[in-house]
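Record EF-hand domain-containing protein, 91 aa.
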Amino acid sequence: MAEEEQMKRQFIDKVFQAADANGDGSIDFDELRHIQESINDAFPGLNEPIEQRTDEEWREDFDFVDTDHNGRITKEEFVDNLLPAILGDDA
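=>
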């Protein structure tokens, strides 16, 4: 199971790097929205259609991951909030 967890961590790391479009080591609101749109385009049907999401829903997603509410999502915040969701309840 450790190997599977490591693979998932590597996947999240790659998603973070892709989302951090300007390479500053954090993700802002626009970068998070862009990566979510890209994932939705790549995997249609995975989530609700992007065009049906309200600005408030986008902001709620961002605020959930941005735990210190400084307007930037660090890699640690990104991993801490996504890895448990990917690994399941035992993470």
